[in-house]
Structures are given as structure tokens and as C-alpha cells.
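Worked example 4.2. Below are the chains of a multi-component assembly; read each line carefully before continuing.
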Amino acid sequence: GAGVSQSPRYKVAKRGQDVALRCDPISGHVSLFWYQQALGQGPEFLTYFQNEAQLDKSGLPSDRFFAERPEGSVSTLKIQRTQQEDSAVYLCASSLVPGQGDGYTFGSGTRLTVV
Amino acid sequence: RKEVEQDPGPFNVPEGATVAFNCTYSNSASQSFFWYRQDCRKEPKLLMSVYSSGNEDGRFTAQLNRASQYISLLIRDSKLSDSATYLCVVLRNQGGKLIFGQGTELSVKP
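Applying the procedure described above to all two chains together yields the following C-alpha cells:
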């Protein structure tokens, strides 16, 4: 597609529920990133894929968070047993060339509210 | 201490004003630097890259001081449409991940 597509746009989950957030990057983009943005804060890095390989997951806040990109295109971020502190906007970004800082495109994000 | 620090603001300025945002970063190995703009409830978008020699794009001027690990953005003749949050961003070469500051909120009033 023309841009990075994320779904759902909004998600309300009851505490303890599992959620799955989807990112469809720009076709052919090698690098894919997940970020978490809390209200009033800048995006915080969660994890990074180069093709299907997850090269960095140092930002995942707990083992309840899991991400995958099995075929090197679409990625899913899964959060198990959601907690209120997981409420945030989850942003996905992709780039054609790894490390090209001015070539990143962000999706519109998924706004997760845990009640 | 956060790796990229910004004054969160908000900055409230009248139309036509000149406004400056500052940012410091702590990782001296950072290689590339950017300013992103984020409108309310939208995704961040690249405003401009920041080069050591300083660079200008219309009303926007960005400066980098590697010795002080300091980045700035100057907006001249501010417009209502400049109202947004401005994010200072550094690129970590390992893996190419972007590290964002907290963002500085700008509100331009008529």
C-alpha cells in the first residue's frame, strides 16, 4: 500500500484480556519498528525487525509483550493479560533501508485503552 | 535521565513570532539527528534532518552542536498551522532505531 497501515485504530480491552495489534508496512520495506506512546510523552522504542528477524526487543516492557513478523511483511504485536499501564498509542514504522533515519514512515497507530 | 531531553512546554506564541526549541542527547555515539512534528492524535512525521553545518528549510532552521550534544530548532514568522508537538529525535546506528524526546508543544495564537 501507499503507507503503513495499522489495525484496529482503536481498541478497548478489559484488564486481563489478550490483544493483538497489526501492522502492514509499506511493500518492500525491510525494517519494521514498534513504538509505544503514552499520553504527553514521546514514542518509546519497543522492538525492531529486519525482514522476519527480530533483531532488538530490548524495549518490550515485560514478557507479556510479544511481537512477530513471520514472513517479513505484516507484523503483529501481542499483549497478554493487559494491565491499565498498557494504555497507550502503539505506533508502527517501516523503512526501506535499515538505518536511514530520514526514510521512516509511521502508521496512524492503535490507541489501546485498558479498563 | 532520558537519552533525549526536551522542554515539554507548552510554548504559547502569537502569530509572526520567532520561537526556539532546544534538545540535548546523552549518547555521544548518536550519528543522525532529526526534528519530527506530531499533530494532535496523529502519527509523527519528519520535519527535517539536522546537520552539523546547520540547515534551513524555509522558515525552519536546525542546528547541531556535537561537542555540547545539543540540537535546536528555530521557527521564524510562526503560523497558526505550526501548532503541533515538535519531537527531537536521534538515530542509534545499531539497528537504526529512533530515540525520541518527550516533545515540545507549540501553540500559535492569532
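Take a moment to check your reading of the output against the notes. Residues 8 and 110 of chain A are 6 Å apart (CA to CA). Chain A touches chain B through 26 residues (CB under 8 Å).
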